[in-house]
Structure formats: structure tokens, C-alpha cells
Specification:
By secondary structure, this protein is mainly alpha-helical. The chain has 10 helices and 2 strands, in the order ααααββαααααα. It folds into 2 domains: 92 residues, Orthogonal Bundle (Arc Repressor Mutant, subunit A); 116 residues, no CATH class. The longest helix has 24 residues. It starts with 14 loop residues before the first helix and ends with a helix.
Length: 232
């Protein structure tokens, strides 16, 4: 085993990865290995052959694991090329959780398929807007337990207050409530008894700074990891 890669004794597998049913057990394990190797420089530069030798599988299998982790939004693989456009190094960044790695990849959204992404974004925005209108105007359709959570967090606003709030603040409230409802309908419902509004808004602003491609999922994972590792 190459000693150059052995930079940390510990690895980190956050709750979002551990409980993601879309991931294989081996993919969760290799994610942890990547966090360990990325600890020193902020990224992992180990090649697929290294992981293949480590876990006694084929290079192709490792490639599939890493590709799936990237597709699910947990890592980002960046190819570093020389002046002749030849690949000289691959860097794998952790992009799932701003609390795990200090040197996370500065993820900037790239519109590679603008028409499809715009349609998808519009559908998401419509769902968020529709749900927000239900919460604010028709509370009896919303589960009582969830509505009481929003009241405790003081996230129920009158029309008068909403009318004087800036557009970006209203959008933040909409997306916070939407993500909280996703948590309410998941195995992470226990988190809702721990969260407070200040922390939710702070995590939201931190998530914005990281500019993830899938903002809502990134924000939700940030909440899960924050309240899985910390009880306050």
C-alpha cells in the first residue's frame, strides 16, 4: 500500500451517506476512505487502482462506485491536465457537508443542459410555492404536528409581514419550510425537535456560499449532519 495515501487514521461517513438507501455498502465505505485521504490537502488524489487493490475488486468496479457517489452529489472528481491536455492527476473533493471538510470543493453550478435543468427547476419551484401557499393560507390541509413545529420556529407569517419582506428572504423561508417538510416525512423526523430558526437560517446561508448544484439536497444534508453530530 502506498504510504503517501495513508494520511489519516480516521474516516468520516455522515448520516446522509450512512442512511442513503441508493448507495451500496461498498460505496459508503469508499466514501469514508476518500474523506480520510482528503483530510490533508482538502482533496483525494488516489487512483482507482489504489482502491481496487485495497478492497480486492476490479478497477472498473471502483470506477462505478466513484461515478455513482458523484452522481448522488457526495463527491466531485476534477481532472487536472497539463499543457498538452493530458490528464496528470485526478482530485476528488467532498461536496456533501460543509462541516466534514474544511477545504471542500468550490462547487459552482454549470448549466450543461439548460433546457432540461430549467424545466426541472421550474417544477421544483412550483412545488415549493404551492406548498408554501398551503402552509400560509390553508393550515388545515397541513399535518397538525408539522404546523406546530413551524409555529414553534416562528415560521408562520401573516400576509402583511410577507408583503414587506424582501423577495430573497421570502424565498429563503419557502425553501426552509419545504426542506423541513421533507425531513418530517423521512427517518430524520427526530431532528425537528432539536432545530431552531437561527440555526436553520445560518445553515441556509452557508449552503448558499458553497453554491451546490442541488441546493435543496445539500441544505437538507447540512441540517441532518449538524443535528446528528450536535445535540444543540
Amino acid at each position: 500500500m502506498n504510504e503517501e495515501y495513508q494520511v489519516s487514521y480516521y474516516s468520516i461517513i455522515p448520516a446522509t451517506v450512512r442512511y442513503d438507501t441508493n448507495l451500496k455498502a461498498a460505496e459508503k465505505l469508499i466514501y469514508g476512505e476518500i474523506t480520510s485521504l482528503a483530510n490533508r490537502l482538502g482533496y483525494c488524489f488516489a487512483q482507482n487502482r489504489y482502491f481496487a487493490n485495497l478492497y480486492k475488486v476490479s478497477i472498473h468496479t471502483v470506477s462505478q462506485w466513484i461515478s455513482h457517489l458523484e452522481k448522488q452529489g457526495y463527491i466531485h472528481a476534477q481532472l487536472i491536465k497539463n499543457s498538452r491536455n493530458e490528464v496528470k492527476e485526478r482530485r476528488i473533493y467532498i461536496v456533501d457537508n460543509p462541516y466534514v471538510q474544511k477545504n471542500t470543493y468550490p462547487y459552482v453550478s454549470k448549466n450543461t443542459d439548460g433546457m432540461y435543468e430549467n424545466v426541472q427547476d421550474n417544477n421544483i419551484n412550483n412545488n415549493i410555492d404551492d406548498f408554501f401557499n398551503l402552509v400560509m393560507n390553508n393550515k388545515y390541509i397541513i399535518p397538525t404536528k408539522f404546523y406546530l413545529i413551524l409555529e414553534r420556529l416562528k415560521l408562520i407569517y401573516s400576509k402583511e409581514i410577507l408583503s414587506i419582506m424582501t423577495q430573497d428572504k421570502v424565498q429563503m423561508v419557502k425553501e426552509v419550510i419545504f426542506v423541513l417538510y421533507e425531513l418530517y416525512n423521512s427517518k430524520f423526523t427526530y431532528i425537528l425537535s432539536q432545530v431552531n430558526a437561527d440555526s436553520l437560517f445560518n445553515l441556509y446561508l452557508i449552503a448558499q456560499e458553497h453554491k451546490p448544484i442541488d441546493f435543496l439536497n445539500y441544505y437538507k444534508r447540512s441540517i441532518i449532519n449538524k443535528y446528528t453530530y450536535n445535540s444543540t
